[in-house]
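Long-time lurker, finally posting.

We've been working with DNA-binding response regulator (Phytohabitans houttuyneae) and I want a structural starting point before designing mutants. I don't trust myself to interpret raw outputs, so I'm hoping someone here can both generate the structure tokens and explain anything notable. Sequence follows.
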Amino acid sequence: MGEPIRVLVVDDHPVVRQGLRTFLDVQEGITVVGEADDGAACVTEAKRLRPDVVLLDLLMPGTDGVAALHGLRELDDPPRVLVITSFTEPTAVLPAVRAGAAGYVYKDVDPPALAAAIRAVHAGHVLLHPDVARLLAAGDAPSSAPTLTAREREVLIEVARGRSNREIAKALAVSEKTVKTHVSAILGKLAVQDRTQAALYAVRTGLV
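Top reply, 14 upvotes:
Generated this for you. Predicted structure of DNA-binding response regulator:
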């Protein structure tokens, strides 16, 4: 057997990274060479460690997965990238694939299937979850789909976590008035009446 597939695990949740490392390290022909907790660290570690495959979460604080994909593509010897996330809204899926992701699976994928996906992506295959493939086949997201700004997404994530406007303002280093403005814009774009409905949307679409 040849050299093992070198994998870099990128996710902002330590427990997720540890779980993936624990599973992958016992797989024949696969070894985890490093971890990163956001997109910027992903690009830095990929440049340093030169992994064969990057296992990448899309939605992370700071530099997100799509931005990381653009950064990885600029490396001299870019790795193959397998996106693993619960976020399947077209506005996130399509940019990720267009930015160079070679594969896309959900976080609830069976462990053996994840290992198989890593091997397939490393071998040069394009691997997409059937739901994502259907989204791509349908083209761009419909015009009726809500398009939130990066800041609005951050605010919505905090709303879904049950935080108050004051807590969100502190977490994002903005004024409480600014948070209220963002929340109003989010409710309008999602066509929902209150924060609870907005939070349910965030959960449904995999934002949290």
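Before you design anything, note these points.
The two ends are 40 Å apart (CA to CA).
The CA atoms of residues 86 and 206 lie 5 Å apart.
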